[in-house]
Amino acid sequence: MRSGKLKHRITIQTPGQIRDPAGQPSTGWTDFDTVWADIRYLNGRQFLTSNAEANSATASIRVRWRTDLSASMRVLYGAKVFDIVAVLPDEEGQDHVDLACVTGVNNG
Predict the structure, then answer these.
(1) Residue 74 to residue 14: CA distance in whole angstroms
(2) Mean pLDDT value across the chain
(3) Cα separation of 85 and 75, whole Å?
(4) Phi and psi for 94 in degrees, rounded to 5?
(5) Per-residue pLDDT tens for 73-96?
(6) How far apart are CA 54 and CA 20, in angstroms?
(7) What is d(CA 108, CA 84) in angstroms, rounded to the nearest whole number?
(8) Per-residue pLDDT, 26
(9) Which CATH number characterizes residue 75's domain?
(10) Which residues constitute the domain of residue 10?
């Protein structure tokens, strides 16, 4: 995989136990890994929900080959949160993994 295409620095997070400000255990997101990626937006839409306007976008995030990613994780890129819908590995060449993601309506 050509490193020039991987120009976005993302953080992959996994759900887990964290401590709230009072020190009590709580469910939240913990950083799993920070990697370089290529983010491509595939489509977007705007809709009404609960009398409020909302936006959603579908994206493909490509990272180097790895086997430890799952659809229960999420991706952070700056202030954007991407929910991983599917992990699509390049089984033949084992060169990369595509993460099918949605943003805009997410697990926050």
Answers:
(1) 7
(2) 87
(3) 11
(4) 45, 45
(5) 999 999 999 999 999 999 899 999
(6) 29
(7) 12
(8) 83
(9) 2.40.10.270
(10) 3-103
Amino acid at 51: N
**C-alpha torsion angle, residues 55, 98, 7, 77 (rounded to 10):** 40
d(CA 42, CA 49): 22
Residue 108 domain flag: no
Farthest-apart Cα atoms in the chain, separation: 49
Asked whether residue 95 is domain-assigned, the answer is: yes
Please list, in sequence order, all residues whose beta carbon lies within 8 angstroms of the beta carbon of residue 70, skipping any fewer than 6 positions away: 84, 87
Which tokens belong to 19?
């401590």
Extract the tokens encoding 10: 């993302």
User: In angstroms, rounded to a whole number, what is the distance separating the alpha carbons of residues 35 and 64?
Assistant: 9
Pull the structure tokens for residue 98.
């595509």
